[in-house]
Amino acid sequence: MENWRCTIFLTMLVTILLVPTFVFSLSPAITDPIVLSSTSSGIINQDSKLETYIVFLEKPEGMESAKPEDLDSWYQSFLPAVTTSSSNQQRLIYSYHNVVTGFAAKLTKQEAKAMEMKEGFMSARPQNVLNVQTTHTPDFLGLQRNLGFWNHSNYGKGVIVGVLDTGVTPNHPSFSDEGMPPPPSKWKGKCEFNGTLCNNKLIGARNFYSAGKPPTDGHGHGTHTASTAAGSPVQGASFFDQYNGTAVGIASSAHLAIYQVCSEFGSCSESDILAGMDAAVEDGCDVLSLSLGGPSRPFYDDSIAIGAFGAIQKGIFVSCAAGNSGPSNESLSNEAPWILTVGASTVDRSIRATVMLGNNAQYDGESFYQPKNFSSSLLPLFYAGSNGNESGAFCDPGSLKDVDVREKVVLCERGGFSGLIDKGQVVKDAGGAAMIVMNDEVSGNVTTASLHVLPASHVSYADGLSIKAYINSTASPMATILFKGTVFGVPYAPQVATFSSRGPSLACPGILKPDILGPGVLILAAWLHPVDNRANTTPGFNVISGTSMATPHLSGIAALLKSSHPEWSPAAIKSAIMTTANLTNLGGMPITDQFFDPVDVFGIGSGHVNPTKADDPGLVYDIQPDDYIPYLCGLGYNNTEVGIIVQRPVTCSNSSSIPEAQLNYPSFSIKLGSIPQTYTRTVTNVGPSKSSYIAEINSPQGVDVKVTPSGIQFGGGDLKATYSVTFTRTANVNVPFAQGYLNWVSADHVVRSPIAVIF
Ligand SMILES: *[C@@H]1O[C@H](CO)[C@@H](O)[C@H](O)[C@H]1NC(C)=O
Ligand SMILES: *[C@@H]1O[C@H](CO)[C@@H](O)[C@H](O)[C@H]1NC(C)=O
Ligand SMILES: *[C@@H]1O[C@H](CO)[C@@H](O)[C@H](O)[C@H]1NC(C)=O
Ligand SMILES: *[C@@H]1O[C@H](CO)[C@@H](O)[C@H](O)[C@H]1NC(C)=O
Ligand SMILES: *[C@@H]1O[C@H](CO)[C@@H](O)[C@H](O)[C@H]1NC(C)=O
Ligand SMILES: *[C@@H]1O[C@H](CO)[C@@H](O)[C@H](O)[C@H]1NC(C)=O
Ligand SMILES: *[C@@H]1O[C@H](CO)[C@@H](O)[C@H](O)[C@H]1NC(C)=O
Ligand SMILES: *[C@@H]1O[C@H](CO)[C@@H](O)[C@H](O)[C@H]1NC(C)=O
Ligand SMILES: *[C@@H]1O[C@H](CO)[C@@H](O)[C@H](O)[C@H]1NC(C)=O
Ligand SMILES: *[C@@H]1O[C@H](CO)[C@@H](O)[C@H](O)[C@H]1NC(C)=O
Ligand SMILES: *[C@@H]1O[C@H](CO)[C@@H](O)[C@H](O)[C@H]1NC(C)=O
After folding, report:
1. Is 422 exposed, middle or buried (0-12, 13-18, 19+ CB in 10 A)?
2. Residue 705 · residue 697 · CB < 8 Å
3. Burial readout 367-391 (b: 16 or more C-beta within 10 A, e: otherwise)
4. Dihedral of CA 371/376/380/382: which sign?
5. Domain named PA: which ranges (predicted)?
6. Rounded CA gap, 755 and 139, in Å?
7. How are strands ordered across the β-sheet holding 317-321?
């Protein structure tokens, strides 16, 4: 690790958006966000300490179309005068040319302050440290080989997906280029791997975390996300004999360009992220996928938001993780309206471990470890909290010392100070034959398939109570576990993952976020190497969870849409994805959270992505990059702050500002008092040229929603139509917010916008 990074870590820590699951027991590198030592933080002499600053400039007149070399020498002129130019070279870390005008450099506080006097200076601040937060998912998403949208989009052929992450494992078969054509001629990127490791699938790979070294993934996260977005098919993939099948990325014929901006520990610094985005734009990427982020910040202070704005101005789609800080509300990352903010949901498979009791009652639980040699004959069942010691029920280390559990099935309770897998180890060490681990009341119905160390099943709280009641009811309770392997078609999927960050957005309360949900729980994709020797899979695959895993699914879908609709803008693609999303689960019921409780629009956003419908949305809500300027002025940002985001001089005036809810966004989020509010929206017809739509309104509780006109006809050549919508409070309701929907319905399309009203 170079020295300068140490200064970065003082203030911030970037982590990949990955949720701790059972893999943590195997791979300590990806446990909870890495806590870096902050002891060095400014102990002595703050003012003369060198830190990495992000400096934004405004090109003076005459330099608007300056060449990169000219910009570089101009940037140099901002650096402190020193005796040799070589020490200035070391001060300058990155020159940015595409998404922003400015640079990253090592500066002291005084030096940064001194730059403020120079012409063209906009802002300078120490960089932030952020935290870095499949076999079956194409099928779950309705994508089928040789049929429908997957076939029609050519699996994303010709599209370039840029992945900013921990690097990549280049020799993995998920990055084989068999059958791949060369990259399109616009491609200008580089391969920083030695020799022939790049190919027609992996067309570029660069390292911004550790310049001069190959961008080899030392973590696994970048390999996983890249293969999820656009990996080549690999037959015979599996993980501990489960999830077997062909592992394939969503845009399996798209090209991949890798930008390593994070360390092998999953920490990513802002200057590197911005450099990666700058290069990806220059190189010719079409879609950027960022499974990383930090906490909410104003957009002028958020390098991903600023870099993404530069990208969308060039027509590049940007998909980012919503964060893993759910289910608390206001917990989102990457909220800017020009970014697709992706939340995570479960997939319709379960790795079943059914508990069977002596009374023949059966309870379906889950376990990733599915031993083939475990007998289905009943064994004595022992409750770890019996013998009058209730704190023993948690099966914490030491708790089973004084009881004989040999050759017994032990019922443990969630809680105490040990994790589910650790409890299994305690039972195993005490000679137990198997473990049933039941939830506590708070975790209710949320069970998970863990990689247990002995035959085990994780059951819900309700099922656990039934098992306890059975134990009470008989002198010699008996039980066994029936291992049923991977079961598909779970009717209550998708569910919003508990960890998926929830709105409302702090940075932009007038925009409903997250935008969309995609598969992000227990996702199988490529990994560095076999996870451990119990997994007899070569090459490596791993099953992990996080909004990090959901994001590349959406990046892949955006690549498919780019391929099938090359003329659509990033906002149009986003609108198509959002207005066609599913609100119901496979069983036809409203999507719930993992507790089976109803979930609101701040958790579900527009719903769960439905790629086939997104290919044919009927209408889209388009936004041109310049439309964001009045929006940003309306957010209350001053001219400098707006200028930092849009990277040119802006003069906000009242006449050029709009309220947030007036942005032509495919959803509504408003704060409503007693005064009615009216907004307009413009829809663009991308469906049949002759079509007519009727507005159907599902009003939020206590709110009247009036749409004018209530019908729209297309056919006269005009592709756009504008309508207005007025929100009026009709009653005082005793809830903090209410939600509803505005649907434009034609013979063959429903274009749905969710509405959130905060009182
Ligand atoms: C979305 O809904 C459609 C029905 O409209 C269903 O066929 C499809 O399986 C759903 N997809 C997901 C991922 O829930
Ligand atoms: C698949 O796509 C090809 C080329 O785009 C097309 O010719 C073929 O008809 C499609 N197949 C189906 C079943 O839609
Ligand atoms: C690159 O590969 C060549 C040939 O395989 C080898 O001779 C050379 O040492 C390698 N360079 C690096 C930096 O690994
Ligand atoms: C996965 O394994 C099961 C059991 O061994 C087998 O029945 C199934 O066909 C396999 N699925 C695939 C897609 O190979
Ligand atoms: C957010 O959470 C707080 C505290 O749990 C709650 O009072 C508030 O109503 C929530 N807001 C929304 C919009 O869900
Ligand atoms: C089942 O197989 C595992 C792993 O191969 C072994 O450790 C265990 O002892 C076996 N159990 C029985 C009951 O044979
Ligand atoms: C009860 O269980 C706890 C937790 O394992 C243990 O520390 C304690 O010694 C046990 N108490 C008795 C009386 O067995
Ligand atoms: C979830 O748990 C509750 C109570 O613990 C139970 O009544 C309910 O049936 C469960 N729901 C599902 C879908 O399993
Ligand atoms: C089982 O019996 C114990 C002691 O009689 C009692 O405290 C407990 O509530 C019972 N549990 C259930 C689930 O019935
Ligand atoms: C804009 O706000 C920033 C703080 O974000 C402040 O430093 C700057 O002076 C303001 N600029 C103007 C033109 O008001
Ligand atoms: C803009 O509006 C604000 C508040 O509504 C007002 O104070 C200010 O004078 C207005 N500025 C101009 C230039 O009209």
Report:
1. middle
2. yes
3. bbbbbeebeeebbbbbbbbeeeeee
4. positive
5. 380-467
6. 30
7. 202-207, 255-260, 160-165, 287-290, 317-321, 340-345, 516-519
Select from 751, 608, 607 the least CA-distant residue to 685: 751
Q: Which of 345, 548, 563, 569 is catalytic?
A: 548
What pLDDT digit, counting tens, does each position of 268-314 carry?
999 999 999 999 999 999 999 999 999 999 999 999 999 999 999 99
Name the phi and psi angles at 107, rounded to 5.
-140, 155
Whether residue 165 lies in the annotated active site: yes
Mean of the pLDDT values across residues 430-437?
Answer: 97
> How much is the mean pLDDT over the chain?
88
Ligand closest to CA 403: 7
Number of residues in the chain: 759
pTM above threshold 0.85 = yes
d(CA 248, CA 560): 14
d(CA 758, CA 739): 9
Compute φ and ψ for 695, nearest 5 degrees: -80, 130
Question: Scanning the structure block, which residue is given the tokens 């200008």?
Answer: 188
Do residues 321 and 343 lie in contact, with contact meaning Cβ atoms separated by under 8 Å?
no
- Rounded Cα distance between 666 and 604, Å, is 14
pLDDT in tens, 186-196: 999 999 998 67
Please tell me what DSSP assigns to residue 531: S
Q: Is 147 in the pocket of ligand 2 (CB under 6 A)?
A: yes
Question: What is the structure's pLDDT at 245?
Answer: 87
Identify the CA nearest to 457 among candidates 391, 363, 361, 382. Answer: 363
What's the burial of 759, exposed, middle or buried (CB within 10 Å: 0-12/13-18/19+)?
Answer: middle
Best substitution site from 191, 192, 194 to test ligand 3's pocket, by max atoms within 8 Å of Cβ? 194
Annotation says 600 is catalytic: no
- Candidates 486, 476, 484, 364; CA nearest to 409 is 476
Question: Which residue has the CA at smallest separation from atom 1 of ligand 1?
Answer: 582
548 is catalytic: yes
**CA separation for the pair 266, 31 (Å, rounded):** 10
- Convert the pLDDT of each residue in 480-526 to its tens digit: 999 999 998 899 999 999 999 999 999 999 999 999 999 999 999 99
Residue pair 207/192 in contact by the 8 Å Cβ criterion: yes
Peptide bond into 709 cis (omega under 30): yes
Q: Which residue has the tokens 């943590």?
A: 24
264 contacts 29 by C-beta, under 8 angstroms: yes
3-state helix, strand, coil in the chain (%, to 5): 25, 30, 50
What residue's CA is closest to ligand 5, atom 14? 329
Encoding tokens for residue 282?
């220059």
Ligand 9 probe mutation, 382, 461, 468, most atoms within 8 A of CB: 468
pLDDT in tens, 701-732: 999 999 999 999 999 788 999 999 999 999 88
- What tokens were used for 543? 């099953």
Q: 286 CB contacts (<8 Å, ≥6 apart)?
A: 159, 160, 161, 315, 316, 317, 559, 562
Q: Is the minimum distance from the CB of 465 to ligand 8 under 6 angstroms?
A: no
Residue type, 654: N
Q: For residue 641, which atom of ligand 10 is closest to its CA?
A: 1
**Ligand 5 contacts CB of residue 329 (under 6 A):** yes
322: number of CA atoms within 13 Å, CB side?
A: 41
Structural contact between residues 377 and 480, judged by C-beta atoms closer than 8 angstroms? yes
Report the alpha-carbon distance of residue 435 to residue 572 in Å, rounded. 51
Q: Nearest ligand to the C-alpha of residue 145? A: 2
In one-letter notation, the amino acid at residue 266 is: G
Dihedral, 269, 272, 273, 274 alpha carbons, nearest 10: 120
Atom number of ligand 5 nearest to Cα 502: 14
Cα–Cα–Cα angle for 543, 545, 547, nearest 5°? 140
